Amino acid sequence: MKSQELSRMGSALVSLEEYEGVQCIKKQNVSPVEMGFYQFAAEQLVGVNTPKLFKIDGSNLFIEYIPNKITLDELNNNIGTLEQLALIHKSHYRPSFTVKEHSWSLDATELALETLKFPKVVQDFILSIQSRSAELFKHSGLISGDSNDGNWGTRNNGELVLFDWERFGFGSPAIDLAPLVQGLGDSQDYQSIAEKYVSFNSKFSSKLLEKHLVIAKTWILIEVTNILTSRNKLDASIYMNWYRANVPTWIESVGKIL
To answer: SUPFAM superfamilies, from UniProt (predicted)?
Structure first.
């Protein structure tokens, strides 16, 4: 069966294949983090829907194909989204395999800023956030690490499934909440999602999560910039131009949260 290339921003090669007469996803050159997740962690995260593992062949995974895409609006209107994320964050499971170590370095920031060429006031704002970003990664709770809407889908029975686990690790829940906010968002968006989330996980205050959301959103734009440019993605210029047009106004609206 001829495979259909499905990979987006990730490094693994993803294709739609057939396994024992059933459509499945084949992920080639899978990272040790994601391999470990499907082998050991997935079954430990009770209440979190993940694709079924069919087969492991070297560094290749054959996993369940989740057929139905979901929009960001649909994701935010689905009670299962925050519920499942909170179950990950509250889980007492501790992986025995190496997970993704999330961090935000000054070198990565400077590299992205060279590409983005923001005005100095914007650069200074981003650098100041980077200098305090360690608080985002010191938390001992598990995170998916990549909860953007392109990594969710539904089974034909309506079950919501999260299916990309290359960035599974530890950190603030805000790392998983930030991709659920449309674009860069604003203070009202952060307040809304933080208040909804704490009803599923009362360990964090909504005010702390709002602050972490500002840090996480800023970190994401640095990460996305460096990933797109280093991998020569065709749509890199679209992202860069959008950031240049919108980030200066955004920092004015969210700076007060910090």
So the answer is: Protein kinase-like (PK-like) (SSF56112)
Q: How many domains does the chain have?
A: 1
| Residue 41 in domain | no
Residue 235's pLDDT band, with cuts at 50, 70 and 90, is: confident
- For residue 5, pLDDT over 70 is answered with no
pLDDT, residue 9, reads 52
Question: DSSP 3-state assignment of 35?
Answer: helix
Q: How buried is 79 (Cβ within 10 angstroms: 0-12 exposed, 13-18 middle, 19+ buried)?
A: exposed
For residue 93, tell me if it sits in a domain. yes
**138 found inside a domain:** yes
- What is the domain range of residue 114? 66-257
* Domain assignment present for 10: no
Strands annotated E in the chain? 4-5, 13-19, 22-28, 53-57, 60-64, 68-69, 142-143, 152-154, 160-162, 169-170
Asked whether residue 25 carries a pLDDT value surpassing 60, the answer given is yes
pLDDT given at position 188: 95
| Model-wide pTM > 0.90 | yes
CB atoms within 10 A of CB 205: 11
CATH number at residue 244: 3.90.1200.10
Token look-up 């009362």 returns: 202
